[in-house]
Amino acid sequence: MNAMVKRRVHVAAAAIISADGGEVLIARRPSNVDHGGLWEFPGGKLAPYETGLGGLKRELHEELGVEIQRAQPLIRIHHEYPDKHILLDVWQVHDFSGEPFGREGQAVRWVPMKDLVNYPFPAANLPILRAVMLPTEYLITAEEADEGLFAQRLERALVEDGVRLVQLRAKSLDEAAYVARAEASLALCRQHGARLLLNGEPALLERVEADGIHLTSDRLMSLERRPIAEGKWLSASTHDRAQLVQAGRLGCDFVTLSPLRTTPSHPEVPPMGWHDFQELVERAAMPVFALGGMTRFDANHARAVGAQGIASIRDFWK
């Protein structure tokens, strides 16, 4: 007996961000359709001749009465349902004209980013929630022996560069020194509205109330299940498709993918380049930060090929 061939459905969706960046618009699905009553990011199915952005412009005009002025790719999600394969082509809308309302009778609501987790969404929408709540820049701290200089450079990145996502990487410190630095770093991050992830054993979260854990690729591949609670952020270092698949299996909220370019720290590792990076990101089940020789000048290019943004040590650690 031949296996059932699933329908392939291409859907464009929008994360419409408020002018102050603090809220996002969501809509409730009608009760008489699939996943009725759940909330979603506005959009709809594309016609065969439409591009993602072109179809999204049409859908938002028909559904909400708004016109897109400026948008950027956010994330592309492949999701398997029992009877169909969904490609969600998601765009982050920064500027639009018109006041959104439910032109088709659907409920629409502006929701603070931090409250999105309180709304029920279809499973295919869950990676969008992560992408919307994450910034586009991810600072990985440098090895720094002097605690005063470390704190000075971290605060400069938080204040002057506006960094809002930090990974505390300090392989040269013993556990006691790492915990002390983590406590001081967490205080700085809290002061400036940034999240802090610890690069180390998941058990570190029992000693430091950080926002999550970043797994090395070796630690990622050694695990059989998600090692921390769902309420904390879990990220991981990945370098190939197998590691991306494992990150999805563990329920990682986001990952770094490297090296995109040759780096001074690992000159022996061949870079993947933008083409291979884009192919890997296309099938990732979570937001992906480009890592390896990245600077802020690469941010728009990274977004264009599907990345959440860039991760860097040198570009932020000055």
Written description of the protein model:
The protein is an alpha/beta fold. The protein has 2 domains: 7-123, Alpha-Beta Complex (Nucleoside Triphosphate Pyrophosphohydrolase); 137-312, TIM Barrel (Alpha-Beta Barrel), CATH 3.20.20. The protein has helices at 52-64, 126-133, 147-159, 175-191, 217-222, 241-250, 273-282, 299-304, and strands at 7-17, 23-28, 39-40, 43-45, 67-80, 84-97, 108-112, 137-140, 165-168, 195-199, 212-215, 233-238, 254-257, 288-291, 309-312. An 8-stranded parallel β-barrel has the order 8-9-10-11-12-13-14-15. Strands 1, 2, 3, 4, 5, 6 and 7 form a 7-stranded mixed beta sheet that branches. Helix 3 (147-159) runs parallel beside helix 4 (175-191). The protein is globular, with a radius of gyration of 20 Å.
- Quickly count the domains: 2
Total helices: the number is 8
CATH architecture classification of the largest domain: Alpha-Beta Barrel
Low-confidence stretches: none
Fourth CATH level, the homologous superfamily of the largest domain: Aldolase class I
CATH topology of the largest domain: TIM Barrel
User: What is the residue-averaged pLDDT?
Assistant: 93
Shape: globular
Strand order of the largest sheet: 8-9-10-11-12-13-14-15
- Helix and strand element order: EEEEHEEEHEHEHEEHEHEHEHE
Beta-strand share of residues: 25-35%
Helix content: 25-40%
Give the termini distance in whole angstroms: 63 Å
Number of strands: 15
Radius of gyration: 20 Å
